[in-house]
Amino acid sequence: MSTPPLGRGRPTSAELEALPLAPPAATGLAEVVRRRYLLGMLVRNTIKSRYQGTVLGWVWSYLQPAIRFCMFYFLFQVMIGRGEGTIENFAIHLFAGMVIVHFFTETFNGGTQSLVQNRSLITKLPVPREMFPVARMLVAAWHTVPMLIILLIPCLFLGWRPDAVGMAAALLGFTLTAALGLALGLLFSVGNVFMRDIGKVAQTLTQFVTFSVPMMYPFTLVQERFGEPLASYYLLNPMAEAVLLIQRGFWTGTTSDPEATAAVHLPDHLFTRGLVMTGISLALLVLAQRVFSRLEARVPERL
């Protein structure tokens, strides 16, 4: 059976499906970095497809988080008065957590669906299949940048100024989230190929993230309600640690006394736990890469 000729432009879905299965490609995250040109093309195409057919295009990536911040500010800080007398600038506290949670959920959920959604490319092109979860992490990072800009505007208005410790905390929080999200994305993406229920499991797990981190409530509330022993178990959640780190980077600097705010509302040994959890997440990423490599050869036939 002869292979149908491809058109001069971008191949259609029918043309891709008619091609024979691609030969095995070199695998590994290092191979993804080596083929960064293809990775960049995949990221750009994914971003373009999200805004295809819209008039405002990428402006929506700024408009949506701006509207979301205004809604939370009006609802929680103006109408309900959440945080009055206890949490200064609660809207910043909340939105800072939303930024890191959004990055994680987009990386995790997008990575989980990445192989299934790109089945035509995976079965026809000899590319490292880790490229697709990595691309979804980069797309999530691209959409997180506008949220950070929206966060910075009220922070600067309230007197926030960058400091070395705060920036290190925010960077550590993003590193922890990226490593954890990509590791889970690799594991769940290959699992989702063999059993589609894995995608539903990922969506269910990410729903718990919003309520299991000190975002809509302060960490001190956990200490007051459950005591120190249970609060220490609460801090074993790496996403709770990531949220606290980014709050240290942005929210505390907007309060009238940043040092006092950090001492009261942030737990002790914040950086130590952040470094340990980042190390564990990187080790999990290495393990996820090995599991992915063992199973990825069977991915094209299952797709």
From TrEMBL:
It comes from the Bacteria. The chain crosses the membrane at residues 55-75, 87-105, 140-160, 167-189, 201-219, 270-288. The keyword Cytoplasm does not apply. The keyword tRNA-binding does not apply. InterPro entries: ABC2_TM, ABC2_TM_bact-type. It is a multi-pass membrane protein. Residues 56-295 form the ABC transmembrane type-2 domain. Keywords: Cell inner membrane, Cell membrane, Membrane, Transmembrane, Transmembrane helix, Transport. It is found in: Cell inner membrane; Cell membrane. Belongs to the ABC-2 integral membrane protein family. This is Transport permease protein.
